[in-house]
Design a protein that fits this description.
It contains two helices and five strands. The chain is an alpha+beta fold and about 70 residues long. The chain has one domain: Roll (SH3 type barrels). It has a five-stranded antiparallel beta sheet. Strand 1 and strand 2 form a beta hairpin.
């Protein structure tokens, strides 16, 4: 998977509702539902419950972060 393709896919869904799952240590999974807010050269961010959360495209490529477009 190419980082430019991932960036284009995420940019094409700006201002849409998403569910982001973050897979951490010891099988801990955090889920955030919000609006895809902004994209930057290396990260993208969502607004969830009034708080901005940021994730890198590399986290998405490696599977540490998964995005479901709602």
């Amino acid at each position: 998977m190419n980082i430019d393709l991932v960036r284009q896919k995420i940019e094409s869904n700006l201002n849409k509702k998403v569910m982001v799952s973050v897979y951490g240590l010891r099988n801990k999974v955090s889920r955030y539902e919000g609006i895809l807010y902004k994209t930057y050269p290396n990260i993208f961010s969502i607004i969830s419950d009034g708080v901005e959360k940021s994730f890198s495209y590399n986290e998405y490529i490696t599977g540490d972060v998964k995005i479901k477009f709602l």
